Amino acid sequence: MKHLTLILTAALAIVLASCSRGPITANLMCYNVHNCVGLDDSLSCERIARIINDAEVEAVAL
User: Fold this and answer.
1) Residue 29: closest CA among 6, 44, 49
2) DSSP 8-state symbol, 35
């Protein structure tokens, strides 16, 4: 009985180790806000927030 348990445990470990879940991906963004002043020299934090939100990323570095 111990041998059967050992064989089944080893077989299960081999099967689980061979399963591949595929690559893990993450969407990241780095954005320099320049004090929220755009190319038109107007201050707009809402515009920067909208740009970042529209990018649909998981993490943002400012």
Assistant:
1) 49
2) G
Cα distances from 5 to residues 1, 10, 33, 48, 55, in angstroms, run 6, 9, 60, 60, 52
Q: Hey, is 49 helix, strand or coil? A: helix
pTM: 0.56
Q: How far apart are CA 32 and CA 27, in angstroms?
A: 17
58: Cβ–Cβ under 8 A, 6 or more apart, which residues? 26, 27, 28
User: How do residues 37-47 score in pLDDT, each as one tens digit?
Assistant: 988 999 999 99
